[in-house]
Amino acid sequence: MTRLRAVVFAALLVLSLPAASVAGPAAPAVPDTGDATPTAEPRLDALTISSSGSGVSWVTVGGDTSTSYAGASAGIGSSLGDADAELRAAFAATRIENSYGAAASDAGRQRIINQSVDDIKATIGELHEREQAAAQRYARGEITGAEFLSTIGRIHAEATALETRVNTVTELASDERARDIRLNGQLARFQTPMRADIAAALEGDRGPVEDIRIASNGSNVVMDRIVGSEYRRESVQYDSYVNDGPIRFESLLDVTDGMDVSERGAELYPWIYSNSRNDNSHRWYNSLMWVRIEHDRGTLQTFLDGTTRDVVLEYHELDVSDLETSPTVSNTANGIKVAAHRVPDGGPVRVNVTTPDGAALDANVTIDDHTVAVGDDGTEWIPARSGPVSVTATVGGDSVTVENKTATVTVR
C-alpha cells in the first residue's frame, strides 16, 4: 500500500514584550521519551522575569540555551535509590536521637542540635549544587533530558527522606530554637508538584510523565508541560540562591537595607499581586521565603532568597484558556488548514488542524522534532521555546502517495 502524506509548516515569530531585568544571578538513567541530544536555541538576553501577554510574569531562560522534550518512567534503579535514601535518613535520625539522649548536659545537647542543623544545611546546599551541575551538563549536551529528569526525581526523593532528620531535630530542640530552624521550606524547594510527578513516575507510583520541555543555559532551568487544560511551568535560577546567608527582608529582621517581602513580590509579579484572590501566603524558611498566590488565571508558588531577594524557584499552574496570545496565523495546503498562535515570552503554542471548511482532522503536530497527536477537535497546546518556531501538521493515509508540499506563515 502507498501512503498519503500532506504536511503544512507554520513558522511562528513572537516579539517579546518589554521585560524587567531581575538583579542577581550519577542518577539512574531512564528511557528518554524525547530527543537524545538537546537542540540549541538562539542567544537571548540575560536572565529576566518577563510579563507575558496575559500579564503573568515568569522567569525566562537567557543565554545560550539547550531545549529538548523528555519524560520519566519507572525503573529498578530509581526504586532502589529511593529506598536507600529513606534508610540512610532513618539511620541518621536515630543517631541524632541517641547522641542527644547520651549527652550529659544542656550545653552538650544544644551542641548536638546545632551540629545537626549545620549538617542538614550543608546537605541542602549539596542538593542544590548537584541539581545545578546536572543542569550545566544538560546545557552542554552531556546528558539527555530524561537523565536530567532522573536527577530531579532522585533529589526529590532525598529531600523527602531528609525531612525525617529535620523533624527529629525540631522535636528535640527547645521551642525557641525550633522556630529558628525552619528547614522544611528549604526542602520544599525540591518538592514542587512538577517534581513530585517526576519522582512518582520514576518510583512506579504513577504512570509515565511525558512531554516535559526542558530548557537550560546552565545557570537556570525552565521545565513546562500541558496537563489537560492547565499549563504548568517551573523555573529555577541557581545563582540567586545563597545557602544560609544574611536575611535582607524587613519583615523578617530589622535591617537598614531591607525590603518587605510583599513589596518585593509585587515588584516581581505586579499583575499577579494586583489580581490575587487571597491574602497571599508568606512563610519564612531559614534563608528562603515561600510565597503562594491564587489569582484570576491560576496559582503561583515562588521561593525568594533572603539574601539576594531574587527568585530561586517559581512554579505556575495556569489555565491556558485564560492566557492572552499572539494573533492567529493560518495557511492551507493539500486540503489541510493549520492555524497557530502562542503565549508570548516562551509560553505554549496552540495549534488547530482542520479541513478548509473547518472540520477537525486526525493529525500529528511536530515542533523541534517533538511530535504529538492533536485532540479530537483538531487542537493541541504544545510547550515551545522562545523565538521563531516551526510547526508541522501531518495527516496520513494509505492509498496514494503525493509529494510533500509546504506553506509558511509568520506571526509577529
Automatic annotation (TrEMBL):
Transmembrane segments: none annotated. Residues 213-323 form the DUF7094 domain. Residues 1-206 form the DUF7096 domain. Residues 328-401 form the Fibronectin-III type-like domain. Signal peptide: none annotated. This is Uncharacterized protein. It comes from Natronoarchaeum philippinense.
